[in-house]
Amino acid sequence: MSPPPATTVGARLREAREQRAIPLRQIADRTRISIVALEALERNDVKRLPGGIFTRAFVRAYAAEVGLDPDRAVQEFLAQFPQDAVLAGGPSRPIEDNEAIESDRRMADTVIRLILLSLLAGVVMYFGCR
Predict the structure, then answer these.
(1) pLDDT at position 95, please?
(2) Which residue from 1, 26, 38, 56 has the fewest beta carbons nearer than 10 Å?
(3) How many CB atoms within 10 Å of residue 57?
(4) What is d(CA 124, CA 130) in angstroms, rounded to the nearest whole number?
(5) Which candidate, 59, 32, 60, places its Cα nearest to that of 46?
(6) How far apart are alpha carbons 123 and 129 in whole angstroms?
(7) Exposed / middle / buried, residue 15 (Cβ in 10 Å: 0-12, 13-18, 19+)
(8) Measured between alpha carbons, how far is 107 from 50 in angstroms, rounded to an integer?
């Protein structure tokens, strides 16, 4: 009698890893994901994961390493943790206005030029008055 199929994404990832006798350390080395994060994935402990696109990337990389379909694993993860799907779709902080960034850049450029010009004028005055 075979054991029942794993019901969570983390359990399926762990089961696939164990069936292939792949040590967690090997997956960590190949994916550059910490063992702590990989263990959290296996336990479905999303509070210990970074969230958003990072967690989806972790699921994708882990699934690929153990021979599972990465896209399907991510879809199952998002179905299992819809709150992460909502957070993953939007930015964690407001997107800055490109015009405001360019304006700040121009202002910084102007300030730097004024400082350099002032230094140059100071040097000319110092050496010119001697």
Answers:
(1) 44
(2) 1
(3) 15
(4) 10
(5) 59
(6) 10
(7) middle
(8) 36
42: tokens are 């296996």
First to last CA, the chain: 100
State pLDDT tens for residues 14-32. 999 999 999 999 999 999 9
Q: Which DSSP string do the residues of 15-57 spell out, in sequence order? A: HHHHHTT--HHHHHHHHT--HHHHHHHHHT-GGGS--HHHHHH
Length of the chain: 130
Residue-wise pLDDT for 59-95, tens only, equals: 999 999 999 999 999 999 999 988 765 444 444 444 4
Cα–Cα nearest to 13, from 48, 50, 37, 38 = 38
CATH number of 9-89: 1.10.260.40
pLDDT tens profile 99-119 = 667 777 888 889 999 999 999
